[in-house]
Specification:
By secondary structure, the chain is of the alpha/beta class. The protein has six helices and eight strands. Strand 1 and strand 2 form a beta hairpin.
């Protein structure tokens, strides 16, 4: 029987003198439960991220959607500038992600020993950087995540298993970048997995992405379903 969609609960928090606005979705049923941090794509806290946060919570978790910009859905030109600036300033990116992780940990029903982070596109980049910072979390999942980093040696600080789910035809996350990431993770002695889906491009989990008209960006129902199943299996393992 399908679980009811958990209600959303907005929450504001601060970092570096700036206010950010995330929200909780609580699928715990009033019991102590694992927590999952959810990081948004380049366009910001869109309907896609809100749906995903609720869907993750409906698995029996407490999910918290972070805000990396302080603006829910900025114009796409502004969002691209935010992404570029944060990718170049990893202390800021990691700091914004870490403070959101602390918000999730502060939820009274969250089991602090069972916390994971997941992200989509740029959000995947953010949670991978959170892992590279040495965050004490149980695991990280990146969907069509940006894999490259300006601090690859920090892979040695990763303390949790990593799963990345990628499209074989992604024009952004190319085969060269996948190979470099594999080498980085191996050099850092990380417990890592990479699932690559044939026929899938970038943003394959986002049912709304086709409307943007970006070349190589397209929803792929099969890859969406398979990567979601991979995430669920990963969570079952790390939260056991």
């Amino acid at each position: 029987m399908a679980l009811e969609t958990p209600p959303l609960g907005p929450v504001s928090y601060a970092f570096g003198g700036k206010t950010f606005n995330g929200f909780f979705a609580d699928g715990s049923g009033g019991k102590r439960a694992p927590g999952v941090l959810v990081a948004h794509e380049g366009p910001g806290v869109t309907d896609h991220i809100k749906r995903r946060t609720q869907e993750i919570a409906a698995l029996g978790f407490i999910a918290f959607a972070l805000d990396l910009y302080g603006i829910a859905e900025p114009p796409i030109e502004d969002a691209m500038q935010f992404v570029a600036a944060l990718r170049a300033d990893l202390d800021e990116l990691r700091g914004r992600t870490a403070v959101a992780l602390n918000v999730l940990k502060s939820h009274p029903a969250v089991d602090g020993a069972r916390i994971a982070a997941t992200g989509f596109c740029f959000g995947g980049t953010a949670v991978l950087e959170l892992a590279r910072s040495g965050a004490d979390i149980a695991g990280v999942v990146g969907f069509h995540a940006g894999l490259d980093t300006i601090r690859p040696a920090d892979a040695k600080s990763i303390r949790c298993p990593i799963l990345v789910c990628l499209g074989a035809d992604d024009p952004i996350i190319t085969d060269d970048k996948r190979q470099t990431f594999a080498e980085e993770m191996t050099a850092g002695s990380v417990d890592w997995q990479m699932h690559v889906y044939g026929g899938a491009g970038h943003s394959f989990t986002n049912r709304d992405i086709d409307a943007y008209g970006f070349p190589g960006f397209a929803y792929n129902a099969a890859a969406d379903r398979r990567s979601w199943d991979a995430m669920r299996a990963f969570f079952a393992e790390i939260f056991a």
